[in-house]
Every structure is written in structure tokens, then in C-alpha cells.
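JOB MANIFEST
job_type = single_chain_structure
chain_count = 1
residues = 119
[input]
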Amino acid sequence: MIKKIVLNPNRIRRIPSSFGFIPHRFLTEGFLASLKQQELVLYWFLILASDAKGLSFYNYKTICKLLKLSREDYLQALDGLLAGDLIAFDGTIFQVLELPLKPVTTSKQSGGEKADGNK
């Protein structure tokens, strides 16, 4: 096992009262690998923008401008996150959801590949 040593003790990250949270299983259980690049960028933005309950209400024009996404890329990313059961959206309010038990993949979302990259 690798022994972890703080590389820069003057710059240890501190978690403030308001912060974005991504569970470690997002990486280790295939959620990261299951997302396209635009989906990942939008998902991380929504995590950073949301409150403790996962709620945020940025409009698509602001999101597209901040993330440098076209409207089409934004809509595809939104559809992918909704299909992946990672967010809920009512047309105004986003909610980042608790991760499902495993990544939800569809042929449209993954291009025919499973989350582990195998066909």
C-alpha cells in the first residue's frame, strides 16, 4: 500500500460550509466511465451549483455560456443525465440525485458500449 504524504502542508484543502460533493463510488463503480464528456461537464457543474439537497436553478443560456456548450450539446447532455438517473429536472429546477445502485446505460447514452467499455 502506498503511504500518503502531504506534498504541500501550507495548501491543505479545507472543506467550507458550502461545497460540491461527489461520492467516491462515482469513480470506482463505473459512473464516470458511463458518461460522455458533455454529460460529465454538465453533471459536475450541477454538483458545484447545487445546495445540500442537490437543488439548483441556473437557466440553459447561462449554463451553455459558462460551460461553452452549444444548445444541442447541452440538450444531449441533459437527456443523458436524465436517462442515467443522475438528475431530475422540472424545466426550472435541477436536482442532483443520490447515485443509483449501478450506472444506468442505454444504447443512445453509451454508443452501444457498457460502462466498463466492453460491447
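[summary]
The beta strands are 55-56, 87-89, 94-96.
DSSP finds six helices and three strands in the chain.
exit_status = 0
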